[in-house]
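User: Can you model how aspartic acid sits in this protein?
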Amino acid sequence: MQHKNIVILGTGGTIAGKAASASDNIGYTAAQVGVTQLVAAIPALAAAGHLLVEQVAQIDSKDMTFAVWAHLAERVHYFLARDDVQGVVITHGTDTLEETAYFLQTVLDPAKPVVLTCAMRPATSLVPDGPQNVMDALAVAGHAGARGVTAVCAGVVHSALDVQKVHSYQLDAFSSGDAGPVAYVEEGALRVLRDWPLGQQKRGLHAIELVALLVEAAAGGTWPRVEIVMNYAGASGAVVDALCHAGVQGLVVAATGNGTLHHDLEAALLRAQSQSVSIVRATRCVNGRVLSKPGEALADSRGLSPVKARIALMLRLMLSGSQA
Ligand code: ASP
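Assistant: Here's the modeled complex, given as structure tokens:
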């Protein structure tokens, strides 16, 4: 039987990090080891063949940019369109992994698997977690029936729609919250628990057209400006007013509880909305979602976390601008 290729795209992160000492798991520099070298260091992978490897970026994911996102979306789209490609694995930092996953899922809604993976310990660690995570990600990418964008860490497969980094240090750093994981990877085999991610939004553009728009917007610096503000004890409208003054096009508010807002912050958001700034209300709670009551003046994020609601709003504003 002819085996299809699995593509591994490198973007940096701790998985490619280096520390001066093998016992140091926090004092390292991310994004130092090339993805080809990472793959070569895993003997089982090097022997398996059928891998295409490409370095798309080499960054600490805390420094993610729109330009890297646009380039990554373009490369993933390119490889997925090839008949000889079964799926794509992306090595990525953990800090903004959930944002990249949601971004790719929303833009591409791929019928083939796109699997982000990562590490909490650098490549130089005495016991690094990256190699096993890459092996597990390849198992997902090669699994018949897998589709959409997922994240794999510590043997757990999360949907791009639900995944969140929930721990700053432990190896099992991600959670799917209420939704639960899509699958577990056990010795290279998948125990699938629920459906693979499917795109939620209908839109007029094909993925290829949207990717071209993103590349153009990143190059031209025209990506819509959407910021996140938060509700907390003593919150005021000052930050919202300042952002409106600076020309922000959209705001996501990480509200308390079920979308509640300090009345001063709420008044500023309503003012901003009346000046055509798009406002979306998400919750800063890790689990649950904002359940809107009839007649609410501020739209809710439809279950998206604040960072994912921001991406959804940026894409919506970009599309409405392109169709205006
Ligand atoms: N700062 C790193 C990054 O996001 C953290 C990690 O990968 O775990 O690239």
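A couple of observations from the model: The chain has a mean pLDDT of 95. The chain has two domains: 5-192, 225-322.
User: Helpful, thanks.
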